[in-house]
Amino acid sequence: MKQRVVLDDKAIDRTLTRIAHEILENNKGTQNLVLLGIRTRGVYLAERIQSKIAKIEGITVPTGVLDVTQYRDDVTDRVSADVQAFQIDADLNGKHVVIVDDVLYTGRTVRASLDAILDHVRPSRISLATLVDRGHRELPIRADFIGKNIPTALSEEIIVMLDEIDEKTQVYIK
Ligand code: 5GP
Ligand code: MG
Hints:
Blueprint: E1 4-7, H1 9-27, E2 33-38, H2 41-57, E3 63-66, E4 86-87, E5 96-104, H3 108-118, E6 125-133, E7 145-149, E8 158-161, E9 170-173
Helix pairs in contact: 1-2
Bound molecules: guanosine-5'-monophosphate (5GP) and magnesium ion.
Guanosine-5'-monophosphate binds at residues 38, 101-109, 134, 157-160.
């Protein structure tokens, strides 16, 4: 199987630095800012952005975890919609929530994330950061902060590796 590296660890680091700056510019600082990473790799990306923001602004913004498996439209046996799909030590009401994920594809995961959040809280604003946008949207959803647009064939797959859980940090196309 042919593999093509599109982002190495240095490129990913620079990309996340840029995204951190873009979020800060867009939000005019860290006020009311909250990051929510989508399980699994979105969580590590959110934490990396959190530490970039801390380096730039000297402020650690609240960062939590979103698990949207129960909110997907292909899940028929929902345990209970009362199970809060996100974990964060902050009140999200009135906040600017930035959802962070590794790859944006059809948009269904993001739609599920919006449901998961809005079932429980009322943020003033929700935006989306993704490391890779690979295209092929099936819903009217777009990212506000994009690491890299990688137009893909349906047969291709983007492999995101982060050294928090993988043996190295890189993005490649398979
Ligand atoms: P969507 O819901 O937009 O179709 O897919 C996005 C979700 O599925 C993300 O959470 C992402 O992790 C995963 N995903 C979809 N396509 C790919 C891909 O090509 N590579 C990786 N690593 N994840 C993908
Ligand atoms: Mg994912």
